[in-house]
Amino acid sequence: WPLTRPARASPSSMPMDRRRLRDRLRRSRAHALVCEEERRLFAELFAWARQQGAQGLEQIEVAYFNKDGTPVRGFAARCEIVGPILLPSALMMTANSEVELALGLAIERRKLLDGGNSFWAPWIRTLPTPGDLLRDDVKYSSAEILDFYSALPLVDQILAWNARVAQDWEDHRTAWSELAKKDGALTLIFDDFKWASSIVRSRVFDPPPTYALMPFADMMNTGPRANMEVYQDVVCDGLGDVSYCALMLVPGSRVYSGDELLQSYTSADNAERLFRGGFMFRGNPTPLLVPGAAEHEALQRLEKRGA
Q1: Dihedral of CA 225/227/228/229: which sign?
Q2: pTM for this one?
Q3: pLDDT computed for residue 2 by the predictor
Q4: Given a cut of 90, is residue 213 above it in pLDDT?
Q5: E strands along the chain, which residues?
Q6: Is the bond leading into 209 cis (omega within 30 degrees of zero)?
Q7: Contact status, residue 230 vs residue 217, Cβ threshold 8 Å
Q8: What are the beta bridge partners of residue 231?
Q9: Helices and strands: H and E segment counts in the chain
Q10: What digits encode the pLDDT tens for the residues 40-75?
């Protein structure tokens, strides 16, 4: 099925000296190794996936890449990619809507925060924290920032998203809190749901067949020339009746050791990319429509701030 994920994986939630890494990457476009804490967390993630039957993970590793002077986390090939990377369907969190998916993710994270366990723990620990989103996600922008850029249609989109998330919570908070308790969480608060809603918006794979969060698939970035494709419900000879999410080479592509794995994202202009994933894509083939002088001035201010 066609890939519909709209945005890249968010920046790392683990501590690192970003200034030193940024300076290093400015001197070299080669990928940088993750820090020791990240190395440990991602080793746990890979081990978790292998325990569930994942295949082909020995071909990839987590690395940082220089994106216009900014370190961005993604996947690098450890060797030439010669076969598919197969992730069993048990590693996909699915739901009938984005709201349902966000609720499920919020409950799983809350269980961990309350000292409990979750099947999804190795993956959740690699996700951006609320503090990361406050720093990097435009949907967490302050009222002052939104007022400063109020001429941009993007601001209306941010305000509408926040209002919708708040209304969903208000409409269902009692039922959702009870559901969370039944599932092992001690409590559930609005901030849990907002965090999960933002994660889902930046990483979701849309139907068909369902809304899904796919660990590993959600960490591949995009670029002008994608070299990987994502497929769901793949059944492989010799592996029984288990269905997989498959990361496969684009026909005719070669990915060598050290190369970044890149996937195609749904067509969207840079305003939509900034809204969903907190980044703008240099060379984006989808033009950004700026209808008037006020919007143009606001975009210039945004560019000067280094967004």
Answers
A1: positive
A2: 0.82
A3: 28
A4: yes
A5: 60-67, 70-77, 85-88, 93-95, 211-213, 228-235, 243-249
A6: yes
A7: yes
A8: 246
A9: 10, 7
A10: 999 999 999 999 999 999 999 999 998 888 889 999
